[in-house]
Task: structure prediction
Amino acid sequence: PFYGQFIISILRNEGVNSMWARNGEEAIKILENNNFDLILSVLEMPVMDGFEFARWLRKNDKFSGLKLWAFSSATMVDIEEKVAQAGFNGFQSKSNKDKLAKIIVELVKK
Result:
C-alpha cells in the first residue's frame, strides 16, 4: 500500500528500524518476538482493524505502555475521540502527506 511505503521511507530516512504488518493479527505475532518503542497503526486493516489491535495492546501488560499512534483516511467528526477511547496516544489523517511526515519524524525523535 502507498501509505505503508511512504511511512517506511520516512522512517528509513530518519535511521529508524521498522517492521510492517498487513493487519492487527500479524502485528501481534511480530510484537511477541520483537521490542518496539513506538507503533504506527492504520485504522482500516483487514482481519483485525486498528481499533481492535489497540484494545488488545492496552489489555496486554507486556505492551500496554507502548506509544501507539493512529493514521486513517477517515473523516469522521468524532474520530479523535474514538481513537482515544480505543487506547491510541494520538491520531493523524493521512490526507495531508506533509503533516503526516512531520508528525512521524517528531514521534521517532521523542
Remarks:
- Helices lie at 2-13, 24-32, 50-59, 79-86, 97-109.
- DSSP finds five helices and three strands in the chain.
